[in-house]
């Protein structure tokens, strides 16, 4: 391989470093601290009384917001959390090397929200099978649609499909007896 170094090569991407990621390489990259600092600054601008805790691993950084005003950080249907998470991801991961997904949560809101979505999806899937009709859910954001699709992927007797565009995109739960 040494005779090829420095010469142009076509048709392949050859990596000189191991392809297995070492989780310890992220320990001191500073991204978790940078993300927490940005979130704290944004929350201070919102004049809210909360604290930010960091939990991180090789794949992601989770910032948990707790305190008196944590409900205001969540916003209506998690919209403020989603907006903060989007901004922080854009700011922390502006360079391609060492990207790590940042998740902003408050009091396990996301887990409770996902559990509610999964429960609703299964109830609607049962309804679709019982009635033999396609059930169309309310419009959802991409993250929520993914949770519903994944929760029903192994649900016997139904398939799911997204339909529509943008903020009007909805999931249809289709019983197995009736295919489109």
Order of helices and strands: HEEHHEHEHEE
Assembly annotation: single chain
Give the low-confidence spans. Answer: 12-25
Largest sheet: 3 strands, mixed
Beta-strand residue fraction: 15-25%
Radius of gyration (Å):
22 Å
Helix content: 25-40%
How many E-type strands? Answer: 6
Q: Can you count the helices? A: 5
Outline the structure in words:
By secondary structure, the chain is of the alpha+beta class. It has five helices and six strands. It has helices at 31-45, 70-74, 79-92, 109-131, 142-152, and strands at residues 51-56, 60-66, 101-105, 135-136, 158-163, 170-175. A hairpin with a 3-residue loop joins strand 1 and strand 2. The protein is elongated.
How are the secondary structure elements laid out?
Elements: H1 31-45, E1 51-56, E2 60-66, H2 70-74, H3 79-92, E3 101-105, H4 109-131, E4 135-136, H5 142-152, E5 158-163, E6 170-175
Parallel strand pairs: 2-3
Antiparallel strand pairs: 1-2, 4-6, 5-6
Helix pairs in contact: 1-3, 4-5
Outline:
The chain contains five helices and six strands, in the order H-E-E-H-H-E-H-E-H-E-E.
What are the salient characteristics of this protein?
single chain, 180 residues, alpha+beta, three-stranded mixed beta sheet, three-stranded antiparallel beta sheet, 38% helix, elongated
